[in-house]
Amino acid sequence: MGSEWAEARLGDVVELKRGYDLPRQNRQPGLAPIISSSGVSDFHSIAKIEGPGVITGRYGTIGEVFYCAGDFWPLNTTLYVKDFKGNDEKFIYYFLKTIHYQEYSDKGAVPGVNRNHLHTAEVYIPKKVSMQRKIAGVLSALDEKIDLNRQMNTTLEAMAQALFKSWFVDFDPVIDKALAAGNPIPEPLHARADARKALGDQRKPLPATIHQQFPDRFVFTEELGWVPEGWEIKSVIDMVDSVSDTFPLKNTKKVIFLNTGDISEGRFLHREYSASSGLPGQAKKSIKRGDILFSEIRPKNKRYAFVDFDASDYVVSTKLMVLRVKEGFRPLITYFLLRQEQSVQALQQMAESRSGTFPQITYRELSILKQAVPSDGALFESFETSFLTNFSDRSQALESQCLALERLRNTLLPKLLSGELRVPEAEATVASMLAEES
User: pLDDT tens, 5-48?
Assistant: First the structure.
């Protein structure tokens, strides 16, 4: 490793300590993150440990490492760094990601990391904190760009969701036209109408071709109350089919397998290939562009995504519903309906009302989600092609950048932290990558 690196035991580099119990009934609303073995799981009014901190799983999820810039509460399923022993905190965060934690786990019925055993791990570490900071700086530059892209995506997502809600849940364009025409506004919509009037000229006019497709009055329905005149009430299962096309694993050597935990709020958390022969039994369903993936388990976890790419080499778990739009409906529209917070909450309540090991829904439960839809479908098509597709394309481009940056970070991480790659070479590689993505 050369004179710049030293061989040591992990316990000489940092002191790890077990986290602290905090039952749910004892938690109070606050801003201090509660960190479990899978990351931030809740918040509390009091922090147990001063930040910055580095935390990893002791039981449950093992191998994940988390950095917390501020004060926090580490749960007893974790180990946190009690003493950095003069080393750079951010470097230690990346450094602990290279440890093979499974080699230091207990052999009990519920495997967990043995802290004392972990302290004996033989490691190599830069002697100078200045070099540690340079290494952490290279990797942080990639993580910061990834975080920025994800924040931009969150903003795009919020804008798209707000626009969908305005048009098809709150019916703002119909309210505006009814006000302009002097037509009556139903009493339940008075507050919304007052809010629209208060905006005055701030209301951005719609393109004429879209504006004319909205009616200017409401009618009452038993299912949803007041809805735009001429619109029909449809449930989600009127809009999509649940498909279970079997993927031909025997004819394929490698595939990208997605389980329920591999998608989250529209994101695909990995795109790595696996050998077809070693996949679990639930790896069965094929998917294609335009499909909606929605987990049957715990809807509140928001394990859903829209397939906006060629997915011919993907296979997904049987616990993921594969929803394919029916003729006359638009896939992104249905996807955005499923993503509405009120939709997620309704499905979670349905899941919790069913008996079983854990809250779960089936395709038939999607019938509880109802939507007023324009009868001819032209307005949905205009909304999707004029607005949602643009949001989706921009979001997909940002997510593709994130995946490329993550691949580079994961390549550089072990090389930098083993001394195989020198900092100036890594800095040049990162600078080139960031210039291409800007």
Answer: 999 999 999 999 999 999 999 999 999 999 999 889 899 999 99
Residues in the chain: 438
Q: Which of 142, 143, 134, 140 is nearest to 422 (CA)?
A: 134
Amino acid at 91: F
As a whole number of angstroms, the distance between CA 252 and CA 410 comes to: 27
Residue 108 has pLDDT above 60, yes or no: no
pLDDT at 110 over 70: no
Output the 3-class SS for 239-276. HEEEECCECCHHHCCEEEEECHHHEECCEECCCCCEEH
As a whole number of angstroms, the distance between CA 220 and CA 206 comes to 25
Token pair 């340079």: residue: 134
Q: Give the residue-averaged pLDDT of 318-338.
A: 91
Give the dihedral of Cα atoms 188, 192, 195, 199; nearest 10 deg.
-140
- Cα distance between residue 262 and residue 417, in whole Å: 27
Ranges of H-type helices in 245-388: 331-339, 341-353, 378-383
Question: What spatial distance separates the first Cα and last Cα of the chain, rounded to whole Å?
Answer: 35
